[in-house]
Amino acid sequence: MIRVRFAPSPTGNLHIGGARTALFNWLLAQSKAGKFILRIEDTDVSRSKTEYIDEILNSLEWLGFKWDEIYYQSKRFDIYKEYAQKVLKEGKAYIEKSEAGKEAIIFKVIPQKMKIVDLIHGEIEFDTSVIKDQVLIKSDGTPTYNFACVVDDALMNITHIVRGDDHISNTPKQIMLYEALGLPLPEFAHLPLILAKGGGRMSKRKGATAITEYRQMGYLPQALVNFLMLLGWAPGENREIIDIKDAIKLFDIKSVNKTAAVMDMDKLDWINNQYLKNEDPQKLTDAVIPMLIEKKYIDKDNFDRDYVVSLVKLFQARITVLNDFADWADFFFMKDVTIDPEAQQKYLAQDLSKEFKLFIDRLDKLEKFDIAEIEASFRELVAELNIQAKVLIHPIRVALTGKTVGPGLFEVMHYLGKERTKERLMKWVKKGGS
C-alpha cells in the first residue's frame, strides 16, 4: 500500500507552498487507495507553537485534506536516541563533546557517488564527498531534521516522499542514513518551487500568504485547491476547472512539471469566480452572514434570510471573493448611501430633477414593483423624453447605489423596493442636482 506523509514544522502558518505539497501527497494517496500521514515536526521546542499547530490542522481540514494518521515528533525523542545509539555502537557515528561537556552524536559520511530516480526530475546524481559529517543528536538531546525524518519515514512505512525540490540537497544525506540503519529506501518526488508572477521568490504581496488569510479574504476552499493543483500539474484537455473527484482519478505524480510553477493571483481570482458562480446560494449565504453581522448590516437575531439569499444570487456571478459581497451590496443594507465623489461629479452634477421626478411618479403608479414593470416604465419614459437610456441609467444607478457598476439597474430597484428607491431618487430632486 502507498503511504505518503506531509510533515509541516509548526514554526509558522501553512502557506501556499506547503499546502501544494500537502495536496499532491493527498492526491497521490487518494489516487492509489493509499494512506495520507500527517507528521508534525516540532522538534524545535523553542520555535514550535500550539497556535501554529492549530492553524495548520484547521487549514488542512478546511482544504479537505483528511489525514489517516497523525504523529508529533516531540513525543518520539526516545525513539531517535535509540536509533542514534544503534549507529554509534556499529561504529558508524562518534561522540563529540562541547566545551560544556555535553555530547552530540555525529554520523560519519563515507565519500561515494550515488544516484536516485526522482519520480518528477528523473535521474539525479550526488557526490557525498562534498558533504561533511552529519549531526544526528544535538548536544541538547534533540534530533536533527534529517535524522528524525529518516527514522520516522521508515517506522511509518512511508513509501513515497513528495516534497519541495529545495529538499533535494537533503536527499543524499538521508539516503546514507537509510543505508546505515539497514532500512528500505522510499521513492522520492521533488516538486518544483512556486515563483512569483514575473519571476523571483514569492513575497507576501505576491501570494506568499497563509491559507488562513486566503480563507479570510473570501476564497472558497475548492477553488483554492483547484488552483493549487494547477501549480505544477494539469488534468489535460486544457481543463482549468476540475472537480476534486475527477482529479483523483487522473492524478499521476510522474506527470508533475519539472519547471517552477507561477503564483498568478489573477488566475486564482478567475478560478474563484467560476466556483462562486456555480455554488449553492444557500451555502454562500451561510458564509456571508457573519460578514454582514460584523459590519452591522443585519441583526444576528433578526434578519430576512430569504432577502439575503436573493441578494447573493444577484451578485454571485460578479464577485471575485466572498468579501466582495459585503462591499458591493452595502447599499442594500445602509440607510444612507455614500456616493463616490467622482461618480457624483460625472453623473449627478447636472440638474436631473425633472427627469427623476417624472420617473418617481411612474414608479409610484406601478401596482407590481417587479423587474419587468420597472424596466417597462423606464423605457416608456426615455422614449417620451426622446433621450438615450444611458442619460438616465447611470445617474439613477449612482443615486441609488453610490456606485457606477453593479447588477442590472432594474433588479437593483426591485430589491431595494419601491419606497427606498423613491426616497433615494427624491433626495436628488430636492437638491436639484449638486
Total individual domains:
4
Mean pLDDT: 94
The CATH architecture classification of the largest domain is 3-Layer(aba) Sandwich
Cα gyration radius (Å): 30 Å
Low-confidence stretches: none
Structural commentary:
There is one protein chain. By secondary structure, the chain is α/β, with parallel strands linked by helices. It has 4 domains: 3-73 and 193-270, Rossmann fold (3-Layer(aba) Sandwich); 76-191, Rossmann fold, CATH 3.40.50.620; 279-332, Helicase, Ruva Protein, domain 3, CATH 1.10.8; 341-431, Arc Repressor Mutant, subunit A, CATH 1.10.10. It is built from 18 helices and 12 strands. It has helices spanning 16-31, 50-63, 77-89, 145-155, 171-181, 211-217, 221-229, 244-250, 265-278, 281-294, 305-315, 323-328, 341-347, 353-364, 371-385, 390-401, 409-416, 418-431, and strands at residues 3-6, 35-40, 69-72, 93-97, 103-107, 113-118, 122-127, 134-137, 160-164, 187-191, 194-196, 261-263. The strands form 5 sheets. The protein has a 3-stranded parallel β-sheet. α1 packs across α8, α7 packs across α9 (265-278) and α14 (353-364) crosses α15. The termini are far apart.
Summarize the SSE layout with pairings.
Blueprint: E1 3-6, H1 16-31, E2 35-40, H2 50-63, E3 69-72, H3 77-89, E4 93-97, E5 103-107, E6 113-118, E7 122-127, E8 134-137, H4 145-155, E9 160-164, H5 171-181, E10 187-191, E11 194-196, H6 211-217, H7 221-229, H8 244-250, E12 261-263, H9 265-278, H10 281-294, H11 305-315, H12 323-328, H13 341-347, H14 353-364, H15 371-385, H16 390-401, H17 409-416, H18 418-431
Parallel strand pairs: 1-2, 2-3, 9-10, 11-12
Antiparallel strand pairs: 4-5, 5-8, 6-7
Helix pairs in contact: 1-8, 4-5, 7-9, 10-11, 14-15, 14-18, 15-17
